[in-house]
Amino acid sequence: MTGAQPVILGDMPSLSKLYVNAAATAARRRVLGTDAGASLPPCGHEVRGVLAQVGNLTAYQHLVGETASDVLPAGFLHALAFPVAMSVMNRDDFPLPLLGMVHLANTVEQHGPLLFTESLDITSWAENLRGHRAGTQIDVVAEVRRTDQSGVVWKGTSTYLARGVFLPGIDKPLVMPEPATFAAPDPTAQWQLGVDTGRAYAAVSGDFNPIHLSVLSAKALGMRRSIAHGMYLASRALADVGAVKGDSFRWDVAFEAPVFLPARVALDISSVHSGAGAWHRSDYVAWNPRSGRRHFSGSVTAL
Predict the structure, then answer these.
(1) Where are the domains of the chain?
(2) Of 135, 186, 192, 279, which sits most exposed with the smallest number of CB within 10 A?
(3) What angle in degrees, to the nearest 10, is found between the helix axes of 74-89 and 54-64?
(4) Element (H or E) spanning 282, and its range?
């Protein structure tokens, strides 16, 4: 992590309180305006001695289709670290509004297994504030270590877009890459997602962002219906890749179009093997089988 030493938090932040505070901050900015500059918080946040709850782990594994195991899935670790990341985004000196931010992409590097019985230290900070043709984007990084050990076992970088927010001194890129044309392949799986999918994932992840919970709460934030959590979708794709990925891998996902609930999602997973026949990488893509519009795509690569 760059910059000053992180602020050590005594307890894991409450996501519900963070969302309430974010709503209050948004209301205050609408009334009073904001003088937010283009600078990042000078330090991150850290919570030490975090233990996963086995009941929550079991519910998560069941929901996303992971095999029951004592090992914490990479997507579960994202959810475990999310409150710490949210607390950084909720700081008064965080330059972008938290509510309404769009999750563009995520990259995870996993360097070995972590067990639910292990005590973990979680650190998060913000970096790489930059322009986007539709607003301003930022990376929020989280790292997970075993308590009292220095080596990073899990690192996640989430890229968010504050749509319509243009900060002074942050230039829009002159050219943005156009998304590649997409022709839907034959799916290897189809998911049927109910209207309660967002609430079910919120119950195991703690992420009760209103855009995922109901039609009414989503409409209040400008969505026509509630949408599925991006990391729920990506975690299901990772579970579909399966145990072939091993314990050390890089997991990438880029989100393109939201999945409005209820929904049917088509998924294709293709694998690449080395010359020796060993698994090297799996690529995945998900789309709307009716419209052919791509929802997200990514890869899982051996480290």
Answers:
(1) 1-172, 180-303
(2) 186
(3) 110
(4) strand 279-287
Q: What is the pLDDT of residue 1?
A: 61
Give the tokens for residue 221.
Answer: 């934030």
- Burial class of residue 184 (count of CB atoms within 10 Å of its CB; 0-12, 13-18, 19+): middle
- d(CA 156, CA 150) in angstroms, rounded, equals 17
Domain covering 1-172 assigned CATH 3.30.450.20 in the classification: no
Compute the C-alpha angle 48/54/57, nearest 5°.
Answer: 90
pLDDT band at 215 (very low <50, low <70, confident <90, very high): confident
Q: In the sheet where 248-255 sits, what is the strand order? A: 7-9, 45-50, 120-132, 135-146, 152-163, 102-111, 248-255, 294-302, 279-287, 263-273, 189-193
Instruction: Give the architecture-level CATH label for domain 180-303.
Output: Roll (3.10)
Task: State the Cα–Cα distance between residues 257 and 9, nearest whole angstrom.
Answer: 35
Per-residue pLDDT tens over the stretch 109-143:
999 999 999 999 999 999 999 999 889 999 999 99
Residue 257 burial class via C-beta count within 10 angstroms: exposed 0-12, middle 13-18, buried 19 and up: middle
Whether residue 29 is predicted with pLDDT greater than 80 in this model: the reply is: no
What's the mean per-residue pLDDT of the chain? 91
Give the three-state DSSP class for 222: coil
Pair 286, 294: CB distance under 8 Å: yes
